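Observation: inputs received (chain + octanoyl-coenzyme A).
Thought: call the complex predictor directly.
Action: predict_structure
Action Input:
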Amino acid sequence: MAFINLEKKEKIAVITINRPEALNALNSAVLDELEAAIDSIDVNETRALVITGAGEKSFVAGADIGEMSSLSKAEGEAFGKKGNDIFRKIETLPVPVIAAINGFALGGGCELSMSCDIRIAADSAIFGQPEVGLGITPGFGGTQRLARIVGPGMAKQMIYTARNIKADEALRIGLVNAVYPLSDLMAEAEKLAGTIAKNAPIAVRACKKAINDGLEAGMDDALVIEEKLFGGCFESWDQKEGMANFLRKKDDPAKVKIVDFKNE
Ligand code: CO8
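Observation:
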């Protein structure tokens, strides 16, 4: 692939969007390759995915403005759908996804990061939804996900003003979970991915689905979603061994071990 690097490091996969000459802006070719990379992830082998941008300046500086500039209404809608479908695949991928935001995360870049489960950023990162300054709305889920993540008031302020914010403000409003020096960002992302990867994958996957699906439902229905996913973990090797390990440990602390969960 020309614009996407996909690296596998044991149980962790790392996708790097690699179009640094355009600050990793998302044109159709980049989006197609991103989708192919997501489709190629073996969700039974991979326990966490990290998405980042190539270079030291930009995560993704948005959708490609040159490519968008001459779109018709119908083509604009289709381009929005293309991005939305791919980002929804990321959001619903049965594996946790961490965005390691190494610089500009503007427009479609901020939207890509918001389709990930967890966002961590370099202290040099800049976030924003500059679309209204270009005469369009956010079109890859920004109006929906930003409001859900930081609340409607702050989302509306960011979107209506098109004002960029720095990493420390993104941290303060809950858009990112943590901020690190750029030089530490990937190590921190992989450490976080590694911590997730040690836990029972069936359970982690069920938690992702319970949180995502539950947020779209009323509380009564959301709790039923949780009950079913909770029940679905039982009788698995991972549940039996995870609990047996705790009971062995209680019986004799010397018997403590780290369970090598099997995803079965
Ligand atoms: N699209 C295309 N090319 C870009 C983009 C972009 N979004 N961002 C940067 N580039 C290119 C520049 O054109 C430049 O190319 P060249 O060297 O050939 O002139 C190169 O990257 C380097 O950029 P700059 O020289 O501008 O670098 P600076 O450090 O001076 O500035 C900025 C960095 C501030 C990030 C600046 O490049 C910028 O403002 N970029 C645009 C950011 C933006 O507005 N992004 C939002 C785009 S709209 C969007 O994402 C909507 C998503 C939903 C789409 C729905 C479809 C219907």
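Thought: report the result.
Final Answer: The radius of gyration is 20 Å. The mean pLDDT is 96.
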